[in-house]
Design a protein that fits this description.
Elements: H1 9-37, H2 42-53, H3 57-68, H4 77-104, H5 113-117, H6 126-134
């Protein structure tokens, strides 16, 4: 079953896969639009602005996502609050790490130490190194 314009039978399978991928992409765009078209009440907007003024922007961002997500109510208060605090904590930790890396003025800031430590030509006992890292 070779369609007009297709050279091999396997090409119609590829076209089918591309069409399915396109359908999934369109559904994702539609869901994104539905979620992001939800407007916040003035009270919710004021709360988000207050969080930003308290200098906890990541918490404000997560709260905004939760308010726009119709399924967020399925989570408990503690789960939602934990998500906000964890996001803020992680953002601050990342910011601190990046600042310290910049201040360190390393010669090779993107170097991967794990890769250099375990090179086979060094003939290291990796079990001993792993054990020492744990203690």
């Amino acid at each position: 079953m070779v369609e007009k314009g297709l050279e091999r039978e396997s090409d119609d399978v590829i076209v089918g896969v591309k069409a399915e991928g396109l359908k999934r992409f369109i559904v994702r765009i539609a869901m994104f639009k539905i979620i992001h078209d939800i407007t916040l009440t003035p009270q919710e907007q004021a709360l988000i602005m207050r969080l930003k003024s308290f200098r906890v922007p990541e918490m404000a961002h997560i709260l905004e996502e939760q308010l726009k997500d119709p399924n967020a109510d399925l989570n408990t208060f503690m789960e939602r609050m934990t998500a906000m605090v964890d996001a803020e904590w992680q953002a601050r930790a990342d910011k601190r790490f990046n600042r310290l890396m910049k201040e360190a003025h390393l010669r090779y800031p993107a170097a991967d130490l794990d890769e250099t430590i375990y090179r086979p030509e060094r003939q290291l006992d990796t079990q001993t190194i792993s054990y020492n890292q744990l203690s």
